[in-house]
Write a structure and sequence with these properties.
transport; mainly alpha; 241 residues; 9 helices
């Protein structure tokens, strides 16, 4: 839905410009775009390191994809039933077949006979680390959303001052005021239509991942405490409502 939403926002914006009597070609100003993007990304880069930039690049390539849980709630219940009937060692083939790394490690902890407190600590550490990585990406995008309108406003003021310094040439003054307006629009559009939606989606995906990890932790602890699978199934049913 990310790409669909961005396309709808941009299309309706441009349609509104056309219906109001304007032209879309008037909005294309390469120097203004270079000023806004260059200053915005430069300031964001100044507050980041290579690790954070790698996280941003990796997340942006998959941000448009829908969130798909690495395991379903039914899978967790089946794991609990298997461990209840056949013992924890029966989960070893399951751990080898799970594609999610954390789920496989959690199952291996069960197989090794780890205590519930140890399993909870291990999964909690992994959950916090995963969430922290996602929030770093969201914060980077939010920084872009803050700097874009600020840099465009500064650039627009500079252009206006330069135009005001040439009162003998009305044409250059009009062009300067127009470029200042376009520069300001670029900053606001990039912030409202691009950076903020990307940051919001990143945070939403982080929450989805965290909730998914909570269900995994609940299942692992339930198995380690030898609870009836029905009890786990009932809790997961309440979580999914």
């Amino acid at each position: 839905m990310l790409i669909t939403g961005l396309v709808i926002a941009c299309t309706l914006f441009l349609l509104g410009v056309i219906l109001s009597g304007g032209t879309t070609t008037a909005l294309f100003n390469v120097p203004a775009l270079i000023i806004v993007l260059g200053a915005t990304f430069g300031l964001a880069l100044a507050q980041s390191d290579r690790r954070r930039l790698r996280l941003v690049g990796k997340r942006l390539t998959t941000l448009h994809l829908p969130y798909v849980p690495p395991y379903q709630e039914n899978d967790l219940v089946v794991w609990a039933q298997t461990a209840r009937k056949e013992g924890r060692l029966a989960l070893e083939p399951v751990a080898q077949g799970v594609t999610d790394t954390l789920a496989a490690q959690g199952l291996q902890c069960l197989i090794d006979g780890a205590e519930p407190d140890d399993i909870e600590h291990f999964v909690n550490v992994a959950m916090v680390a995963e969430e922290e990585r996602e929030l770093q990406v969201a914060e980077f995008l939010e920084q872009l959303a803050i700097y874009a309108p600020l840099m465009s406003a500064i650039a627009a003021v500079i252009v206006v001052l330069q135009s005001a310094a040439q009162p003998t040439n009305p044409l250059l003054s009009q062009i300067g005021f127009f470029n200042a307006g376009v520069t300001l629009v670029y900053g606001l559009m990039l912030s409202a239509i691009v950076f903020l939606p990307l940051a919001s989606r990143t945070r939403w995906l982080a929450r989805c991942q965290y909730r998914c990890r909570e269900t995994l932790l609940d299942a692992l602890l339930s198995i380690s405490r030898n609870e009836p699978p029905r009890r786990l199934s009932d809790r997961l049913a309440y979580r999914s409502k």
